[in-house]
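Worked example 2:
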Amino acid sequence: MTDIRTAPAPALPDGGSTPRKAAAPARRRARGENLAGYLFMSPWIVGFLLLTAGPMLASLYLAFTDYNLFDSPRFVGFENFTEMFSDPRWRKSVEVTTSYVLVGTPLKLAAALAVALLLSKERRGQGFYRAAFYAPSLVGASVSVAIVWRALFSDDAVVDRSLQVFGVHLGGWIGDPDMVIYALVALTVWQFGAPMVIFLAGLQQVPRELYEAAQVDGASAWRRFRSITLPMISPVLFFNLLLETIHSFQIFASAYVVTNSKCGPADAGLVYTCYLYEQGWTNLRMGYASAMAWMLLVSVGLVTAVLFWSQRRWVHYEEDVR
């Protein structure tokens, strides 16, 4: 009896060339599809290489040079980085930016979550209220909004007069070294629309049965929020925290315009990007500014890594909850 494993394969009528002939057109179609895909992607690829990757590599080289836009770059090694740590204004910009991130980001997320909780319940005119609260985020950190904000928080302006009704007189926030940072924080908190929409999407995914079971057990509203809402939306909370932290480090237009390009009195509003801009375009120290930019990139990367590491302790994904 012939063993199936050793029996010769049946010969094809055309000598066994049919599979190869059939595979050749398939390979040509695959190559054509790949070529079409690369052609459609070519505008993005060219833009990425010319407008993102190219300038980044150029700035990395300039970070190790002394360059003023008019003379050829002169290689100075790590001199820009060592000067940075001994620069008191650089340290001040780090301090101001850190304060802005630590105060502004949590307040913005808290406001976004609070409004999202209110708007997640069915009520008349719900669509209008959602659009109204989201509207400030559409304009972003534009120059026009910053100009209006500067007018609101100037001396004897609308905010100051409103507080005087309650017997509080703080004067102009923009000219006060102790208050200018809070004017910037108030601006970022006011634009909580984008994280609010993301929180709304997360709240819609929380099963209603969990709240009903908790109510039957007599859980209070705070207990339901702490034990059900927060764990269930923790991935969304982490996503918003990550994005808003990165955005806070990049603040520039609002701070520059609100302080009237003076970075606040006594450098109280000297955020990192404002000092970077000053060094690059006012003092024409492009090498030093490039080194500052890369230091910011590394710092944001480290903060992002820390946030990803910390999520294991407090972010609960669906499989974890089950």
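The longest strand covers residues 65-66. The mean pLDDT is 87.
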